[in-house]
Amino acid sequence: MDQAGRDIERAAELIFQSQRIVVFTGAGVSTESGIPDFRSPGGIWTTFEPEDFTIQRFLSSPETRIKIWTLGRAFKFQQAFPNAAHHAIVDIEKMGKLSAVITQNIDNLHQRAGNRPTLVVELHGNMQEVVCTSCRALWSWEQVEQRVLAGEGDPRCKQCGGILKPNAVFFGEPLPVHAFMKAHEKSCRCDLFVVIGSSLVVYPAAEMPRYAKSNGAKLMIINLSDTDQDYLADMSIKGSAGEVMPRIINAVEKRMKSAVESHLTSL
Length: 267
Known about the structure:
The chain is of the alpha/beta class. It is 40% helix and 17% strand.
């Protein structure tokens, strides 16, 4: 067996032995569903300026708001589908081992893949929702997009006339307090923390693996490139999430099947 195979088997053994797994996902999972990230060639910063995503500019500039409402069409959020990595995380839930999915992504793909919404902690919000910045009423992105397509360049809240905003965290906004506290709690109480598709450079989200390690959890990192926390990891696999995760899940399922067969034989 080559090193890659040994890494898969070792990762499978960690998952097999764990009971309270937290999965932490970043842009590397979403990009495999065709959603551009911010920094890569062809990414969001090639079409939008970082300043467009500051809460100050969004609230003060109708032109910026009109520009932002084209985001869904430009990057096809609605046309993206969960990929093999999303489905592998659902498999961990089906095994009864998943404590939470903490995600930096704003695309709703974990829920669409089949993870229970109550297990998904969205640290940076969700672009599939639109919130009124005044009365906090919520709409779906599709509802507001239809108004934009019908000619409302800068749609306003139908209840109070306030400014509507994608319910994702813009620069200058704090993380949702409830989401952060839940992520912190789940990280501190897990026995295995699995990072998938994140370079762990965006804080405070990137503190979560440290919370897990400091409370005795094992740390596994699966990412295409090195991360700032590889030195903390009990194991690190370099590779595509959509290729690596199904192989790990297959190896875990073999272990589970073998364990059941051994138990039945002993009866």
